[in-house]
UniProtKB/TrEMBL annotation:
Limits of the Peptidase M14 domain: 118-398
Xref: SMART domains: Zn_pept
PANTHER family to which the protein is assigned, alphabetical: PROTEASE FAMILY M14 CARBOXYPEPTIDASE A,B, SLL0236 PROTEIN
InterPro entries: Peptidase_M14
Needed co-factor(s): Zn(2+)
The protein's name in its UniProt record: Peptidase M14 domain-containing protein
PROSITE patterns in alphabetical order: PEPTIDASE_M14
Active site: E367
Native species: Hucho hucho (huchen)
Length: 401
């Protein structure tokens, strides 16, 4: 069905998977989502054309059931009691037991059945993520590519990126997950998405208009710590918040100490993870049309800025508002469109950096919903939502930006 600005194609998609290996990768994701991909829809951002087609819908693909309002302390983990962390130390063991029950999935992996694999029944370690994705790369040599992209973490663990491409595309969309180690569901969602896209590779997918570059696990060494007793570990193993280590022209008036959960590091890009990502993005700036940073668990679609209450300017704020409102509605109103600073001021975040460095191209943060950073594996599927084709079609059909 063709509309004046776009063509609507319905597909069943799971969170995309990016080869990220920088430590222990968790493939905690199964978020089946009924997604509608809109092709050929452009939004004019000043004199540039802001490609929102796949970007906004890929954002919608990460939607999960809305959570109740959460406080700053809940999101930072600052209000966790000794008993609460102790109770969640068993989380890794619970998933290890799940691994035992769901262990023999590799021999049965085949195109068309990746999304239903027993692999997705548990949150996974980085070794299991790598092993799983290696098989997908081998079985989809013409569509899925991986390389030890970006950098090596402090302990020498490579960060892998996966690129999904069905042909020579001039542009790409970029997404990364797990800057914060404890946000397992972000990585699992990315892995599940790749699986489903490959299952539907013969059908219209985001790769019809853009290649997809996905880094499912940035904070690998920190992630390993969450599997070894420090379940609420937020920072890297080097104890730096990787979402505070990006360049910003606005300095934090109250610089956090090294013991703080939001310690930004000694200097901008002091960490190999952020340095490597930066170098890759700068090298490929001409071909990347949009950026998504995936987090948990506030159920919000965030627009810039996070480090100032000042507007982005140039007419872009209204366009961000329109875009994120539509994304939220496409998620059945389970998510809220917000400005990043409305949660709390964030200095040195990826989104703030990308907005300024790659001016005119959309950069948003998706906070997946939930009630805690720790979620039972049984909730992976039930937390998924369906954004119906009719709802999304109607919402975007009237878009006249």
């Amino acid at each position: 069905m063709t509309f004046s600005f776009f063509e609507v194609v319905a597909i069943h998609i799971l969170p995309y998977n990016v080869v990220g290996y920088s430590g222990l990768v968790s493939d905690n994701a199964l978020l089946p989502v009924r997604l509608v991909l809109f092709q050929n829809l452009s939004i004019h951002f000043q004199k540039r054309t802001m490609k929102l087609t796949s970007l906004s819908l890929l954002a919608a693909a990460f939607a999960t059931v809305a959570a109740s309002p959460v406080s700053l302390n809940e999101l930072t983990g600052a209000n966790k009691t000794i008993e609460q962390p102790k109770a969640t130390l068993d989380d890794a063991d619970v998933n290890r037991k799940c691994h035992t029950v769901n262990s023999d999935y590799l021999p049965s992996l085949a195109p068309g059945a990746y999304g239903s694999s027993a692999y997705h029944n548990c949150f996974r370690t980085d070794a299991q993520v790598d092993e799983y994705l290696d098989v997908l790369v081998k079985q989809n040599a013409g569509a899925l590519h991986c390389k030890p992209f970006v950098s090596y973490q402090g302990v020498g663990l490579p960060i892998w990126a996966y690129k999904i491409s069905t042909g020579a595309r001039p542009s790409s969309l970029y997404l990364h997950a797990l800057l914060h180690a404890r946000e397992w569901v972000a990585t699992s969602s990315a892995v599940h998405t790749i699986s489903t896209i490959l299952d539907n590779i013969a059908k219209p997918t985001p790769t019809d208009t853009h290649d997809l570059i996905i880094v499912p696990l940035v904070n690998v060494d920190g992630y390993r710590m969450t599997w070894s007793g420090a379940r609420y570990q937020r920072k890297s193993a080097n104890e730096v918040d990787l979402n505070r280590n990006w360049y910003t022209p606005i300095a934090n008036p109250k610089p956090p100490s090294p013991s703080s959960l939001i310690y930004p590091g000694p200097t901008y890009f002091s960490e190999k993870e952020t340095m490597g990502l930066r170098d890759y993005l700068l090298k490929n700036r001409a071909s990347i049309d949009g950026y998504i940073d995936l987090h948990a668990f506030a159920a919000e679609v965030m627009a810039p800025f996070g480090d100032t209450k000042e507007p982005v300017g140039g007419g872009l704020d209204e366009k961000y508002k329109t875009m994120n409102t539509k994304i939220a509605k496409a998620m059945s109103n389970k998510y809220k469109p917000t400005l990043s600073h409305q949660m709390y001021l964030v200095y040195g975040s990826f989104m703030n950096y990308a907005v300024r460095e790659f001016a005119g191209k959309p950069s948003i943060t998706i906070e997946m919903d939930g009630t805690d950073f720790v979620e039972p594996a049984s909730s992976i599927i039930t937390r998924g939502i369906r954004a119906t084709n009719d709802d999304l079609s109607m919402h975007w059909k009237n878009n006249t930006i």
